[in-house]
């Protein structure tokens, strides 16, 4: 494991040790912002039943917990301490690094990766892995920090935090989705601290205030 990954693993083990099953273990600002993001994102994803779902970098499993009742949800993370709480929420947990997943090609109907790639140096390798394990016709959804928002630029002036190390442009992820065999990409945009979201194309004026976004695409059927 790279030294950066080892640092993050220790960081999230420590968080889970301190905050337990709370979303604070996954570095959410507070419960409100977590539930706002989760509810909008899961609604956008649509009704899911009897699906095989991967929550990649699941942390304590709070994001995909509502999916557990009607689906089989696998949770993969390298923080073993976080996975104890994810398992208690009903996820089938596995301690793995996302750069090399132990699943066959096309295993999952839906792959979620929420708030993870901003921590990862090898994000293209992780995206490739996530696309590989997505079933043809299935959905890959990635949520991360948006580069270029005015709020984040202001925050960066005042806060030297590891959290803001890496951010992404919407087009940048769209290109990688395209490269790894996904199509019909769509965005869900969030504008912290405002409590609303919008759906739509990249490159609108409102993107200046978009603090994080989710992109989803369908795996092409050959
Ligand atoms: C900010 S938390 C988000 C947790 C969860 N997705 C959520 O939204 O509640 C990021 C998680 O990604 C995990 N993670 C980061 N890099 C990883 C990697 N290379 N392999 C496996 N897990 C990783 C961390 O351990 C942590 O639990």
From TrEMBL:
<keyword id="KW-0489">Methyltransferase</keyword>
<dbReference type="Pfam" id="PF08241">
    <property type="entry name" value="Methyltransf_11"/>
</dbReference>
<dbReference type="GO" id="GO:0008168">
    <property type="term" value="F:methyltransferase activity"/>
</dbReference>
<protein>
    <submittedName>
        <fullName>Class I SAM-dependent methyltransferase</fullName>
    </submittedName>
</protein>
<dbReference type="InterPro" id="IPR013216">
    <property type="entry name" value="Methyltransf_11"/>
</dbReference>
<dbReference type="GO" id="GO:0032259">
    <property type="term" value="P:methylation"/>
</dbReference>
<feature type="domain" description="Methyltransferase type 11">
    <location>
        <begin position="54"/>
        <end position="142"/>
    </location>
</feature>
<dbReference type="InterPro" id="IPR029063">
    <property type="entry name" value="SAM-dependent_MTases_sf"/>
</dbReference>
<keyword id="KW-0808">Transferase</keyword>
């Amino acid at each position: 494991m790279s030294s950066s990954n080892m640092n993050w693993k220790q960081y999230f083990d420590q968080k889970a040790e301190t905050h337990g099953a709370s979303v604070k273990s996954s570095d959410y600002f507070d419960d409100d912002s977590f539930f706002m993001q989760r509810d909008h994102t899961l609604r956008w994803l649509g009704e899911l039943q009897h699906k095989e779902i991967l929550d990649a970098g699941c942390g304590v499993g709070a994001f995909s917990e509502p999916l557990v009742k009607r689906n089989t949800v696998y949770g993969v993370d390298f923080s073993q301490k976080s996975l104890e709480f994810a398992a208690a929420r009903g996820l089938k947990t596995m301690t793995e690094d996302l750069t090399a997943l132990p699943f066959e090609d096309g295993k999952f109907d839906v792959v979620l990766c929420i708030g993870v790639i901003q921590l990862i140096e090898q994000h293209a390798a992780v995206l490739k892995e996530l696309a590989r394990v997505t079933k043809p016709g299935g959905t890959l959804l990635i949520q991360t920090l948006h580069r270029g928002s005015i709020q984040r630029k202001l925050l960066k002036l005042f806060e030297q935090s590891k959290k803001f190390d890496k951010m992404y442009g919407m087009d940048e992820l769209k290109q990688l989705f395209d490269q790894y065999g996904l199509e019909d990409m769509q965005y869900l945009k969030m504008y912290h601290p405002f409590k609303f979201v919008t759906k739509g194309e990249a490159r609108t004026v409102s993107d200046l205030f978009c603090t994080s976004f989710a992109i989803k695409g369908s795996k092409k059927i050959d």
